[in-house]
Amino acid sequence: MASTKKKTGQLEKAGLKFDLLQPGIFGHDITLVEQHIREGEFQRGLALITAFSSLMGGLEVAYEHYRGSYSQRVMYTPVIISAALTVVSLGSLFSRKVAKTLLPVTALVMLADGLLGFFFHVRGIARKPGGWRIPMFNLVMGPPVMAPLLLGISGFLGIITAFLRRADDLAPDNANQTHRRPGGSRINPRGVSRQHRSLEQDIREGRFQRLMAAAAALSILFSGFESWYSHYKNNFKYGVQWTPILLTPLLFVGGIGAIWSRTVARTLLPVASILALVDGMVGTFYHARNILRRPGGLKKPLYNIMYGSPILAPLLLAASGFLGLLASLLRREGN
Question: Count of CB atoms within 10 A of residue 288's CB?
Answer without folding.
Answer: 15
